[in-house]
Amino acid sequence: MLAKYYNKGMLEAGCDEAGRGCLAGPVYAAAVILPEGYENAQLNDSKQLSEHQREVLRSEIEHDALAYAVAAINNEEIDRSNILRASFHAMNIAVKQLKTIPQMLLIDGNRFINETGIPYICIVKGDGKYQSIAAASILAKTYRDEYMRQQHQKYPEYGWDKNKGYPTTKHYDAIEEHGISPLHRRSYTLFRQKELF
To answer: Which domains does the chain have, with CATH numbers?
Structure first.
């Protein structure tokens, strides 16, 4: 069971993102406030869960949370500002969309640019330590995966229904064969580096 809170008695929002390492598509972020004393033994870092487990937990989180919000920053903005700033901005947007204002933000990672005025703490690997951050990681991941599956219908050659835009061998192969799509991040290295002999 992950920890229920960082400060007992405070209204805390867990925040996390998904898609920073992808070659294509937006970065997503979520903010989740869970009820005081909430327990869900299945909650964990989204990367430790199967796709089916994440989808089941998404429904439970959306039903049980006091408040939650999800935001996305598209690939063009990622290219303009850089992925780290885009990730932080998406988290801030999600927090600002919460219908309940939290007293504290629990941010997954080691740094953050705060645009909310709400106190925060950064927690490395927080999605494997605190329920609210794990819940945010699951929402960010499932919403992003859903979007990439939809985009697969437009651009089936890249296999986004399977790789979700991450840098797999098949994804690189497809870029080399078909070129880049409007959803690819041009600030990323999209072509494999050829070895020089």
So the answer is: 12-178 (3.30.420.10)
Closest CA to 49 of 111, 112, 106, 2: 2
Q: Between the CA of residue 62 and those of 15, 65, 128, 181, what are the distances in Å?
A: 15, 6, 19, 33
What residues does 17 pair with on adjacent strands?
29
Cα-to-chain-centroid distance, residue 154: 22
Structure tokens at 31: 């903010």
Integer angstrom CA distances of residue 164 from 18, 19, 22, 67, 127: 11, 9, 8, 27, 20
Containing 122, the helix (H) or strand (E) segment is strand 120-123
Q: Classify 187 as helix, strand or coil.
A: coil
Q: Is the pTM of this model over 0.85?
A: yes
**113-131 pLDDT per residue, tens:** 999 999 999 999 999 999 9
